[in-house]
Amino acid sequence: MDVMSSVSMLAGILVGLIIAVFLLKLLNKNRRAKTEYDERQEQIRGRGYRYAFYTMVIYEAIMLCLSVGGFLNIPVEQYNFHAAGIFIGGIVLCVYTIWNDAYWGRNNDMRRYIVILTVLFALNVFPVIATIRSGIVLVNGYWDFPFVNLFCSIALAILAVTAFIKGRIDKSAEEEDE
Fold it and tell me: Does the CA dihedral 90-95-100-101 come out positive or negative?
């Protein structure tokens, strides 16, 4: 990866973080960046963070062993493997908190969340589809493919499927109680 690509990627990450803070304010009903959770949700989220952390540690240990053993000799930039670990940890956290009713805060506006997550999915899946359609090429010996966009798309799809399944289960449980 050349210097210009590195600077561009760093700038993209920083802009993304700034946009994330503004989106959090937009997504919350009270226009605050901090999402409010009750005590039960806080405990569940703490457990979810612990599971996500250990998942990332195990993933990175596996990647370390594979790289020392020379098994990761494929034409992909190494940062993609670390990004995958971050996304896997995030998926563990999201799935666990969705499944245990601690993902959505008390001040979240669900409709806004769904719209923003759908837009983020589209923005991330578009470069993946465009690259596949135009063909994957080698640049400086590495595949020129938007792996981080792919990881984000997969994570958002898993989040959507998990929320959908959990919603259906909760709805059928409510119907049985009536």
Answer: positive
In 3D space, the residue among 112, 101, 100, 88 whose CA is nearest the CA of residue 30 turns out to be 112
Q: Give Cβ neighbours of residue 10 (< 8 Å, ≥ 6 apart).
A: none
**Taking CA 132 as the corner, what is the angle to CA 131 and CA 136, rounded to the nearest 5 degrees?**
70
Q: The tokens of 154 are what?
A: 């997969």
Residues in the chain, total:
178
pLDDT in tens, the chain (178 residues): 567 767 777 787 788 778 877 776 777 777 777 788 899 999 999 999 999 999 999 999 999 988 887 777 788 888 899 999 999 999 999 999 999 999 888 888 778 888 888 888 998 999 999 999 998 888 888 888 889 999 999 999 999 999 999 989 998 988 888 7
Cα separation of 3 and 9, whole Å? 10
Q: Quote the DSSP letter at residue 78.
A: T
Instruction: Output the pTM of the full model.
Output: 0.83
